[in-house]
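Deviation from plan, reported transparently: zinc ion complex.
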Amino acid sequence: MAWFACLPREITFTVDVESEGPRGDAACARMTEALMTLIETGNGLGTFFILGEVAVRNPGLVREIAARGHEVASHGMHHRALARSGRAALGDELARARGILEEVSGAAVLGFRAPLFSLDAGSAWAAECIAAAGFAYSSSVVPAWNPLHGWRGAPNKPFLFEAGLLEIPVPLGRVGPLAMPFLGGMYMRSLPPWRMKQFSRQNAATEALWCYCHPYDIDTEPDGDVAEAGNGRLARFFLRRNRSLMAPRLAALMAGRTSRPFAARLAAFRAGAAVFAV
Ligand SMILES: [Zn+2]
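Because the crystal trials were delayed, the predicted structure below was used instead.
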């Protein structure tokens, strides 16, 4: 799979560590272990955005991620769009989520990723809450129109919110007027090889290159569903689709590449970032 050959050598492998609830926790932990091993195969280290609920139920997993040298970051307390928490509650929630991870891992937590990439024009106020909770950076914006969450007009390279928060937006592939993430989740499982190749060529000069994966993306065990509760039929279809393709595709992406955590790349991103006034 030479689809990824023209992408830059430097990448950050990110994992959104989430499970649908206690019954999905064991699978979530097994798949997270597998992803750590995949990243470490290339002598790399990744950034793990861990859901607060998962950290409370399985602090051992957080400790292991930290002990293996990976960056521990936050995926919020609960897996819901930022706007659903509301401004008053979100600040407390984020501070709590960050505090739990710092206590368990024993290290400073700098990074935040909004569930569902839900930092968009409608929840722009949340950037201030994220900064106030003590995070130095966020990786939460799809800088284009998207049927789920997307922010048309947001910069497609690292930028600063007025609150001082650094945002590292999702790398996108473009087809005419449409743009979409391609190095992660259901997109990476669903897109045909020629499209992956085309999108990779478009990102040959993308400095802040990163990919993302959920534990369930690589879970091919028949009862291994960890993300189905509360989802409709169409969502379930995309959550399950082509899971067996994901691990080989990630391995192909990482061939000849080494992942460095976001925390190690922040100074470079910040140096080139302009303020995005919203
Ligand atoms: Zn998530």
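The longest strand covers residues 10-17. We consider this an acceptable substitute for the interim report.
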